[in-house]
UniProtKB/TrEMBL annotation:
SMART domains: PP2Ac (SM00156). GO terms for cellular component: mitochondrial outer membrane. It comes from the Eukaryota. It comes from Spathaspora passalidarum (strain NRRL Y-27907 / 11-Y1). Coiled coil: none annotated. Residues 119-124 form the Serine/threonine specific protein phosphatases domain. PANTHER family: SERINE/THREONINE-PROTEIN PHOSPHATASE PP2A-RELATED. It is an enzyme of class 3 (hydrolase). This is Serine/threonine-protein phosphatase. The keyword Hydrolase applies.
Length: 383
């Protein structure tokens, strides 16, 4: 039997310092990544397939190895533990910094286990990462060794498949499945394996909404399905849900709202692949706007996001109509980080060259890193 255990906070802060306090960020040694992955696997064994989470929380879509844009998210939206985050998968592949991105998220999950939550996307797969960049990046950054790729892809098998927020919002990476009518069917799955080619688990990470259809249709991706209005209406009705939030699709403006907010897509990789020129977003959910709550009674406590900080934008009915979100929700839209543009101009394909700088500083390195940087104003974009 595997017994869960914790890594000392000082060790986790040291890992965070390596990634945050150096340019370029220092890659962690293979033995450190092995230790981090093993520790997180033991902790994820007891986590259900669908995590029951509460607002306030910020939901992040695909990142795809864009490390500097991940830091931009924390700069504009607040860093853990002051902000709760749910990441919807696709942490690696495509971008130049998949190793650094997933290393940071693993360290953050271990450092702030009740504030940072990770679910699985279709790129958290051995097959996909072999073909779309992560495997090659590991070989380049670790002198031809694939050990780190093995440690991390083994960890991917342990990631949950979804989450509920306030019991009313279902979050997954991709979409719905014709084989699944009830959340309990997802809860009963054996998720500790490679993503299969078909079935509920595959559909959860591969499917997409389509406003042109009502039922299910085979996806042009070659995996998963397209699903229409009748499908999501029935799924929400049968499971007492109000909304589905997912990622998985590039959105030029950073987000897409389907069917008057019944389904939302959040995309968090700006200037995707360093050439698409798109914006990105984080979906901030301050509270669930059900019958039991009003605009003036958010579900927050003194340790969480302060309602007054967000009151004006969340009460703006124009924002809700334009963005197609429910009251209490807001797409925080942002552009690519300056480092993203710099990498593009220099054509970087491989990072990971560590310098011999001396380590300095003490305390909570993650929070202190962002406290020293000026917070950017969110970018509001209206169609």
């Amino acid at each position: 039997m595997t017994i869960p255990y914790n890594i000392p906070i000082s060790d986790l802060d040291y890992c965070l310092e390596q990634l945050l306090d150096h340019k370029p960020p220092k890659i962690l040694p293979p033995e450190t990544i092995q230790h981090l992955c093993h520790t997180l696997k033991t902790q994820l064994l007891s986590v259900p397939n669908i995590m029951p989470l509460q607002s306030p929380i910020s939901i992040v879509g695909d990142i795809h190895g864009q490390f500097h844009d991940l830091l931009e998210i924390f700069q504009i939206g607040g860093s853990p533990p002051s902000t709760n985050y749910l990441f919807l998968g696709d942490y690696v592949d495509r971008g130049y910094y998949s190793v650094e991105t997933i290393s940071l998220l693993i360290a953050l999950k271990l450092r702030y286990p009740d504030r940072v939550f990770l679910i699985r996307g279709n790129h958290e797969s051995r097959t996909i990462t072999t073909n779309y960049g992560f495997y090659t990046e590991v070989l380049n950054k670790y002198n031809g060794s694939a050990e780190v790729w093995t440690y991390i892809t083994d960890l991917f098998d342990y990631l949950p498949l979804g989450a509920t927020i306030d019991g009313k919002i279902f979050a997954a990476h991709g979409g719905l499945s014709p084989s699944c009518q009830q959340l309990d069917q997802i809860r009963a799955l054996d998720r500790f394996r490679e993503i299969p080619h078909d079935g509920i688990m595959a559909d959860l990470v591969w499917s997409d909404p389509d406003t042109e259809i009502l039922d299910f249709k085979l996806s042009p991706r070659g995996a998963g399905y397209l699903f229409g209005l009748d499908v999501i209406n029935k799924f929400c009705h049968d499971n007492d849900l109000m909304q589905m939030v997912r990622a998985h699709q590039l959105c030029n403006e950073g987000y897409t709202s389907y069917w008057k907010g019944k389904c939302l897509t959040v995309w968090s990789a700006p200037n995707y692949c360093y050439r698409c020129g798109n914006r990105a977003s984080v979906l901030e959910i301050l509270y669930y706007s059900g019958e039991s709550k009003s605009m003036g009674e958010p579900n927050a406590n003194e340790n969480d996001v302060k309602y007054d900080d967000y009151k004006n934008r969340f009460e703006d009915s124009i924002v809700h109509k334009v963005q197609g979100v429910l009251p209490g929700q807001f797409f925080n839209i942002f552009e690519a980080s300056p480092e993203n543009d710099e990498d593009t101009s220099k054509g970087k394909g491989v990072n990971g060259i560590n310098s011999d700088e001396e380590l300095v500083g003490n305390g909570d390195f993650f929070c202190s890193y962002f406290k020293e940087r000026p917070r950017k104003q969110h970018v509001e974009y209206f169609l």
